[in-house]
Design a protein that fits this description.
The chain is of the alpha+beta class. It is built from 5 helices and 5 strands, in the order H-H-H-H-E-E-H-E-E-E.
């Protein structure tokens, strides 16, 4: 492929993308592509956070509705137990999926050293929290602090 590029007097990048880039515009084009990729990452993270909220609120709502129904509308004891179990299954699955999304999308930023990282699912699951801020140990400085969720590095 390198020989073909030399014969045609184009770069490998131009051959792969199908786009001719003049040498003086190459740096600007590369910077524009990096900015575009960073913006796409932020958009994707925001979209996943929206899905996380929908899943979390939805599973909690289903949990509360099933509990309410079993307490006030169901007379049969066996059916009450089944609704209780079903409600907890919905809650556990919904919260687990929401936490998985929260773990994998975006980054946490240490408030002590400002290191940005992705914690393990276990760290996120067991950490005290309010909203998307969790009390965790930073892997860089090893100090505990309230670490906020951010969209990108």
């Amino acid at each position: 492929m390198l020989e073909l590029c030399q014969i045609l007097d184009i770069s490998v990048n131009e051959l792969l993308t199908g786009e001719f880039i003049e040498e003086r515009n190459y740096q600007q084009k590369a910077e524009d592509n990096l900015l575009m990729m960073a913006n796409q990452e932020v958009k994707q993270t925001k979209k996943m956070f929206f899905y996380e909220n929908v899943i979390g609120i939805g599973s909690t709502s289903i949990f509360l509705i099933l509990i309410f129904m079993s307490v006030y509308f169901v007379e049969n004891s066996v059916l009450k137990v089944i609704l209780f179990i079903l409600s907890f299954i919905f809650l556990i699955i919904g919260v687990s999926i929401a936490l998985k999304i929260e773990t994998e999308e975006g980054y946490y930023e240490c408030q002590k050293c400002h290191h940005k990282y992705i914690p393990s699912y276990q760290q996120v699951y067991f950490a005290m929290h309010y909203g998307r801020t969790r009390y965790m140990k930073c892997p860089h400085c090893q100090k505990r602090s309230w670490q906020k969720k951010i969209y990108s590095k």
